[in-house]
Amino acid sequence: xxxxxxxxxxxxxxxxxxxxxxxxxxxxxxxxxxxxxxxxxxxxxxxxxxxxxxxxxxxxxxxxxxxxxxxxxxxxxxxxxxxxxxxxxxxxxxxxxxxxxxxxxxxxxxxxxxxxxxxxxxxxxxxxxxxxxxxxxxxxxxxxxxxxxxxxxxxxxxxxxxxxxxxxxxxxxxxxxxxxxxxxxxxxxx
Length: 190
Prior knowledge:
By secondary structure, the protein is mostly helical. Among the domains are: 3-65; 98-160, no CATH class. It is 47% helix and 3% strand. It has helices at 3-46, 52-65, 73-81, 117-128, 153-163; strands spanning 177-179, 186-188. Strands 1-2 form a two-stranded antiparallel sheet. A hairpin with a 6-residue loop joins strand 1 (177-179) and strand 2. Helix 1 runs antiparallel to helix 2 (52-65). The chain is flat, with a radius of gyration of 34 Å. Mean pLDDT is 74; it is low at 91-96.
């Protein structure tokens, strides 16, 4: 056996040992995809029995199978460069499961207590600083609360300081204690 044959055999064995697990994974994926296709066919056959929900599932199944046409980048460039005519703003799609934020003018969907994530954080801040307006209630109906503009920077700090009740501050509690020689008790270092 020549050196070249021995080298080729060694490379072939190394490649087969490294690619073996990959080939097994690809075969398992192919089997899984064929069973997935079978499930889709069964779902399409049972869709009429399920009523409206079944029709939605079947429609999604048909849309998933339809290939999406891809336009080359050269064909997209002129359309992007062309001036667009001003169209009326599209109304947000608010399905029965998805409501809009409770703050007037906000187009984002509600996430918690009727508010979008940004306005929910503002609600938490308003509650924490005792500045919650009367119309910012929990589980508010969509587009029912007025937007609140909070002062920022020095003006905000000044407003918070004025709003805080004036309570006398206690002296700080000692943080360290030591036992001195001859004393029975502990003595504060502060």
